[in-house]
Specification:
heterodimer; A: mainly alpha; two-stranded antiparallel sheet; 36 helices; disordered N terminus; B: alpha/beta; Alkaline Phosphatase, subunit A; 2 domains; nine-stranded mixed beta sheet; globular
């Protein structure tokens, strides 16, 4: 029945009963303060009785122990063991409107079950604890698995935690996935690409006990590993190839992107990975690479809109850096504290601005200087790039001379005087007097020419002049393009004289209060002994080092959680962006902490962490489900089966390219522009940006290298992070528009067409060819009933295309990849259509 | 393996494939989508996509919204907010007490001379209601008695992108869900053949302005991405990748999709993953959209008299006139939220030439849309909104003797917005500015108040449509907003 309940509603029901319905349902089960009680207090009470001093009522603070157990005027909020003597209970059950809490007008009211839980908690002695995420992870003992048969399946401690929990839930792990499915799963997870048929065959045939581990080690060592994991990091780093906002100028941050890929491939320890990206420029004797790494916090959007107040932009950029840092390394939602003390977590506005001060010391002014590359920058341009600009500039000057000569005739004026001295020129409509007449030809910009060309082409026709202006426009565009390709990486620096930071009222850039703050770690995380001298002003390097120190309870947890999310679809903490008191409690708190401590103990060795996860029996389970399990655990949070999810759209594209044998894999370099419907950029930018599609190999590079225009992202991807702000959570939705992409996007049609060529060239009978096509997409051959359906369809397709040779010819010519001239187009088209079907199978689109 | 009986019971294989020439059986598809064959509010025979079970909170006046967004900020003092004082003071420095301490864009922020600029158009009182409308908008003037003018709008943002983002998402910073996303999340859609939230953009022919249409103007923010607006394109296929590849006919596609569904169903029976059923439905809906979108854009059955109302550009895809007609056709087909955006209102130095051009672009089509909805009885449950992101300065940007380059700068302190249709008083003017049109002084309406009012018209208590993200319950109106009850009919 469950599958027929709409997803949205199902999610609602599910959340309402708490994680997987696992809150203590019966009185016999122990109440855990952090799991069961704090979320209620936080949701229903903290808004007025929480961390925000400005809106605190009755000076009562329920998020701290002192407030919760306070006695004032003979009234005690919570008396352990005595619900009836506790004011908290008296208030929540009060029948009087002026007494009851939450007050009747509050949006959030307590449910009867919640009131009951609060009573039981107090009756049971009211045990209290700080929010788990603010305490350092303590390495838990690995639990024993009682059931002998299940215990035998434990491959590493992950399984002990998962299986022990399953036993509590009276569930058993699923059997291991079959070899081919498992290899595809792990290859997609570790490298973003499926195994080749040869790799699959070798793996299936390999009977050695460590066959899987060796396959995993091979995948971890592949340069594709860094390319796959870079994607997730780029989403979180809001990486793109343009600035966003008006004009959306290009930037050249790809050396930073390549730095990420290389660091991941080299398995750079995550603490170093963190420090170099947050403060590589401040390291003693910083290398070129370390400076490039510091570009992490230059990946934010940049608003250079005309009329924009630079300081407003600069301040917003600092906000973004503070909040991104907090999301990634603290799992904390700092943005609330920009305007006021956090309503739920103990983060004050002062804490926010102490962090702000740390990022407030860069020389960035908020002003756009020329293109999209905003100072400070590291110039890593090549002689070729500079030569291209020189050539393009010379072309602009040449055309400008011709334009000038023509304009002397068209707009007569005294010898040696500019066009603005011509009364005719000043009578032109719109912006033309200002942007055309008053600007000498070689200094005119795209905007001016975009207005002038249609005017002299259509409104006041002068074909010769219009053609000259068009030539000018083309030349200026080419020069701008050449300019934007000079590789300059935006990096961080520190002002010699530090700015003073004042708390900004409501986060308004021009509303400085008189409260001065200096860089510091948020108070809730400060562990200095009472009475110790106040710490010195913390700078970026200090912050970076602290973030990956044992004093920060959250860096390893958030990193491990993101990894778990990537492998299993959902993190231990489902709200990957929020580990605070309003975030969802972890599904497996002990395992989360065990993995976090394991990660740091192994020196932040990310490949070791990934290896540990994928070699667990938990990960290796088959992903098949059944109605009972589906009803019990619809989101597979307990992991009584393996993960099964639709692949990210970028991975679906890479897989299609690989299946067709089209994929080319030179590493790194400037972004590429594959197929995109004509006019997408033009429509979004009023013709100022034209998409010049690349040809040849550039069409078949991995998705990681696809050019990302911030205001109108690549159309071939769906459910992708917008690359506008830090995104750590995975989106997985279904709309008909997604189906249209994988059915009709030329990239996919071409992949189907070339996959058809591939299987046709391999020869064999129809069944063999069908099997091969199916294998390239799913890593397995079709079963008899599947093969029968496809085979029957093939017959129909042949008849359909034979009846319409023109259609066959058109379909068999999709895309730019070469096609053997001798190939019969009817046969080719029939196979192309069939391959498109196979590339759209749910199994192809899914990690299984 | 165990077949997934629980789900299979609701649609047998025969139901699934027996009607394959027409796609999935109706009942099967509706149940797959969690819908209801005769979903609330859906016209007979049309299948609805459900929203939240708790919505609407009360009986709505409006079922759908058409937002005619005028990007760049139309000049309120030249079009709607008639201030004789401006003509009296023309050329004289605007009183300091008005401008003191106020924030302007950097384009006039440092300009010390701020002479008052009289209106450049002629105003007259129109209709029974006597609303002042400029001579530049003759068609809108004609329907003044259908319009509800709010003359006391004000906002905080002084730059386009943040101000538009504020109007459409409730926050100046990009990244929050837009109004259309909130409404499709909360209320679903009256049809599943078309997206719940459609966006269409256009600009003035001279391309005189630099404002860009950012996709966060129709983004879903932290709501699932399926709620983001679908931007219909101004050329070619209105929906990306809608057409089958060249050489692959609809008949061939049908056959391929039949087998795709069949193979996916085999997989579902084996694996029991309900996501596979969703996948099957997703592909069927794509197939149906391939038919419903061309039907939507086929204007051959529109009477000449209707086309004429929208003006000469109506048949040209990508124009404001075409988009207005399309908005009506989308509304008829049950689309919840249509966002038509027209750029080019940013007259910093070309007020005397460009404002007229801009008005000519939008005047007839805007009025035609309202008349057309009215003659079809659709205006009763469709809310039409017309307005920009802020107003323009009553004082001059530029030099008073350089008449050709007169302009007005961004002005967040007062501007006019108008609405028509479901639930708002027709022929009504609300709020007022001071005698210079500088500050909204009477019955001030903030952006969040406007948003709260729109939600109210759709049967939503704006404080209660929330979504939990980063531990906080977010809503369109942030923590503000009061319903402007006085304009409700």
């Amino acid at each position: 029945m469950l599958s027929l309940i709409p997803r949205a509603r199902r999610a609602g029901v599910y959340l309402a009963v708490g994680f997987a319905g696992l809150a203590p349902a019966s009185a016999a089960e122990a109440i855990d303060f952090n799991r069961d009680i704090r979320p209620i207090l936080s949701d229903a009470c903290y808004h007025c009785h929480g961390p925000d001093a400005a809106t605190r009522e009755a000076k009562l603070r329920l998020d701290e122990r002192e407030g919760l157990f306070r006695t004032k005027d003979d009234v005690t909020v919570v008396v352990p063991g005595k619900p009836e003597a506790s004011e908290l209970i008296q208030r929540i059950i009060s029948p009087h409107a002026d007494e009851v809490m939450p007050p009747p007008e509050a949006t959030r009211q307590l449910k009867p079950a919640e009131k009951e839980l609060l009573k039981r908690w107090i009756a049971g002695g009211a045990p209290w604890g700080r929010h788990w995420a603010f305490l350092p992870p303590v390495r838990p003992a690995v639990p024993a698995v009682a059931d002998r048969a299940v215990a035998r399946r434990v491959r590493n401690p992950i399984d002990a935690f998962i299986f022990a929990r399953l036993a509590q839930e009276k569930l058993a792990p699923a059997p291991e996935a079959d070899a081919a499915a498992l290899l595809r799963r792990v290859a997609l997870d570790l490298t973003g690409l499926p195994p080749t048929p040869a790799e699959t065959a070798a793996f299936v045939a390999d009977r050695a006990p460590d066959a899987y581990e060796r396959a995993v080690d091979r995948l971890l060592a592949s340069p594709r590993y860094g390319e796959r994991w870079a994607w997730d990091w780029l989403d979180l780093a809001r990486y793109a190839d343009t600035n966003g906002f008006q004009g959306d100028p290009e930037r050249t941050m790809w050396p930073w992107r390549d730095w990420v890929v290389n660091a991941l491939n080299a398995n750079m320890p995550f603490d170093q990975f963190t420090i170099e990206q947050l403060a590589g420029d401040l390291l003693p004797g910083a290398t070129r690479d370390q400076k490039i790494a510091s570009g992490f916090h230059r990946n934010n959007m940049f608003n250079g809109e005309g009329g924009r107040i630079p300081e407003e932009t600069r301040v917003e950029n600092v906000f973004d850096r503070v909040e991104t840092t907090a999301t990634v390394w603290l799992g904390a939602t700092f943005s609330c504290a920009r305007c006021h003390d956090h309503k739920y977590d103990p983060i004050t506005q002062k804490d926010y601005f102490a962090m702000y001060d740390i990022f407030n010391q860069m020389s960035e002014t908020g002003r756009l200087g020329g293109g999209g590359q905003v100072l400070p920058i590291l110039d890593v341009s090549t002689p070729e790039e500079l030569a291209a600009v020189k050539t393009a500039t010379a072309r602009v000057d040449t055309v400008a001379k011709a334009v000038e000569a023509y304009e002397r005739k068209k707009f007569p004026r005294p010898e040696g005087k500019p066009m603005s001295e011509s009364p005719d020129a000043l009578k032109l409509p719109g912006n033309l007097p200002a942007v055309l007449a008053k600007v000498e030809p070689k200094r005119r910009g795209v905007d001016a020419l975009l207005e002038a060309v249609p005017y002299f082409r259509d409104t006041a026709p002068d074909p010769e002049y219009a053609a000259l202006l068009q030539a000018s426009l083309d030349a200026v565009r080419a020069r701008n393009n050449a300019n934007s390709r000079i590789t300059k990486v935006m990096i961080m620096d520190e002002l010699p004289e530090l700015r003073e930071t004042f708390i900004l009222n409501k986060g308004n850039y021009e509303a400085k209060t008189d409260v001065k703050v200096v860089g510091a770690i948020p108070a809730v995380f400060q562990t200095a002994a009472a009475g110790a001298p106040p710490a010195a002003r913390v700078n970026r390097l200090g912050l970076a080092r602290w973030l990956v120190s044992p004093e920060n309870p959250l860096a390893a947890r958030t990193a491990v959680n993101r990894a778990w999310q990537a492998f299993f679809g959902t993190g231990f903490v489902k709200t990957a962006e929020d580990f605070g008191v309003q975030g969802e409690p972890p599904s497996h708190p002990e395992l989360l902490d065990w993995l976090a401590t394991e990660y740091t103990a192994r020196g932040w060795d990310t490949k070791a962490l990934h290896r540990l996860i994928v070699t667990s029996a938990t990960y290796r389970q088959a992903s098949r489900t059944n109605p009972a399990l589906q009803e019990r655990d619809p989101e597979n949070r307990l992991l009584a089966r393996g993960p099964r999810h639709r692949l990210p759209s970028w991975m679906i594209r890479d897989q299609a390219l690989a299946a067709a044998g089209l994929l080319v894999e030179p590493p790194g370099g400037p972004a590429v522009k594959p197929y995109q419907p004509a006019g997408i950029w033009e429509e979004a930018t009023f013709g100022k940006k034209t998409y010049q599609q690349d040809h040849g190999e550039a069409l078949y590079r991995r998705s990681l290298y696809v050019f990302w225009r911030r205001i109108v992202g690549p159309t071939t991807f769906f459910d992708a992070g917008a690359r506008q702000v830090c995104t750590v959570k995975i989106a997985r939705t279904n709309t008909p528009l997604h189906a249209l992409v994988t059915l009709n996007d030329p990239a996919y049609v071409e992949a189907a067409r070339v996959l058809a060529q591939r299987v046709l060239a391999a020869g064999g009978d129809d069944r063999a060819k069908l099997g091969a096509a199916f294998q390239f997409a799913t890593t397995r051959g079709p079963r008899a009933n599947e093969a029968a359906i496809l085979h029957s369809r093939l017959g129909k397709l042949r008849a359909q295309f034979a009846a319409d040779p023109a259609a066959a010819k058109a379909l068999a010519a999709a895309g730019e990849a070469p096609r053997p001239a001798e190939l019969d187009s009817v046969e080719h088209a029939a196979w192309t259509a069939l391959c498109s079907l196979i590339l759209n199978l749910d199994e192809t689109l899914s990690k299984e | 393996m165990t077949p997934f009986n629980a789900a299979s019971a609701h649609y047998t294989r025969r139901q699934f494939f027996g009607k394959s020439a027409l796609g999935l059986g109706t009942a099967a598809l509706a149940s797959l989508l969690g819908g209801n064959a005769f979903g609330a509010g859906a016209p007979a025979g049309r299948r609805a996509v459900p929203g939240l079970p708790s919505l609407p909170h009360f009986a709505p006046k409006a079922k759908r919204v058409i937002y005619l967004f005028q990007n760049g900020a139309p000049s309120h003092v030249d079009l709607f907010d008639y201030k004789p004082k401006l003509r009296e003071w023309h050329g004289k420095q605007i009183p300091d007490e008005l401008t003191g301490g106020k924030r302007f864009s950097t384009m006039t922020g440092n300009q010390t001379a701020r002479p008052v600029l009289g209106e450049i158009t002629q105003f007259a009182q129109r209709g029974k209601s006597g609303a002042w409308v400029s001579s530049f908008l003759p068609h809108m003037a004609e329907i003044a008695d259908d319009l509800c003018f709010v003359k006391s709008m004000h906002t905080e943002a002084v730059n386009h992108a943040p101000a538009i983002t504020y109007f459409l998402t409730g926050s100046e910073m990009a990244g929050r869900p837009s109004m259309g996303a909130w409404l499709s999340y909360g209320l679903g859609n009256e049809t599943e053949e078309l997206p719940a939230f459609v966006v269409m953009t256009s600009r003035d022919k001279e391309a005189s302005c630099g404002q860009i249409f950012y996709d966060f103007y129709w983004g879903s923010g932290f709501l699932p991405t399926k709620y983001q607006g679908v931007a219909f394109r101004g050329s070619g296929d209105p929906v990306l990748y809608l057409s089958n590849p060249e050489g692959l006919s609809r008949e061939v596609r049908r056959g391929l999709l039949d087998d795709l569904a069949h193979l996916n169903e085999i997989k579902r029976e084996d694996f029991g993953d309900p996501e596979i059923a969703t996948r099957i439905a997703q592909y069927e809906m794509a197939y149906r959209m391939q038919a419903s979108v061309p039907e939507l854009t086929d204007l051959s059955k529109e009477p000449a008299s209707v086309l004429e109302m929208y003006g000469p550009d109506v048949k040209r895809q990508g124009t404001y006139a075409y988009n207005c007609l399309m908005a009506r056709r989308l509304a008829e087909r049950g689309v919840r939220f249509v966002q038509v955006m027209h750029a080019g209102w940013d007259q910093h130095r070309n007020l005397n030439t460009q404002l007229k051009i801009q008005c000519d672009d939008v005047d007839a089509p805007s009025a035609a849309l309202i008349k057309d909805l009215k003659q079809r009885g659709l205006l009763e449950d469709t809310l039409v909104i017309w307005g920009g992101e802020f107003g323009r300065t009553p004082f001059l940007q530029g030099k008073i003797d350089d008449v050709k380059q007169w302009g007005r700068d961004h002005h967040p302190y007062a501007f006019t917005l108008c609405m028509a249709g479901a639930g708002v008083k027709p022929g009504f003017t609300y709020g007022a500015t001071d005698e210079f049109g500088f500050n909204a002084v009477q019955n001030r309406v903030h952006v969040h108040d406007f948003q709260a009012t729109v939600m109210h018209l759709l049967g939503i208590q704006h404080e209660k449509l929330t979504y939990k993200f980063q531990g906080r319950n977010f809503r369109l109106t942030d923590v503000h907003g009061h319903v402007v009850k006085d304009i409700l009919s």
